[in-house]
Amino acid sequence: MNPIIASYLRSLLATSLTAIFAIGKLPFLFTEADWAIVANTVWISAIPVLIRIINPKDTLGSSNKSE
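Request: output the structure for the sequence above.
Response:
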């Protein structure tokens, strides 16, 4: 699997679970506004990946430049 995609999926899983647990209800009791909060994790999850790509000391960013 592409390391960038793997990094994004790990970040997406972590932020989605954090958002679900932070709401404090069972998912089948969520309102539309609660699901909107969880949906925001899709773009929020990209932030750590972008930081890793920009960081010159991280191998994730350097592997893309060599291809």
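The helical segments are 3-23, 32-39, 41-44, 46-54, 59-66.
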